[in-house]
Amino acid sequence: MVPVCFAWLPPYIYTAIDGKPKRTMLLRRVRNITETGRASLVVDRWSEDWKNLSYVLVEGPAEMLEDGRERDEALILLTAKYPQYDDLPLAGNLVIKLTAERTVEWHA
Hints:
The chain is of the alpha+beta class. It has two helices and six strands. A hairpin with a 2-residue loop joins strand 1 and strand 2.
């Protein structure tokens, strides 16, 4: 699993391939989406008190947004949620769009 920053605009989840250094820009998650057209995302809530642990698994069709209005709007959502992106501009970056088709929730 790879930790990601994401924005939720029901029923879509957006995450950008940011500019942090990587061994390759042809990331496995990008290849998998290109090959299968599907993705999943686990969002967890961690707590030292294990009675408060929980997660949600989201699965569904996914696509890469390379340009266009939807990609630009996703980048605005991500930048608004994560001020760190002010120092790591996302302009020109790919965005993964995951459509929430199925969810599984768990809590302790």
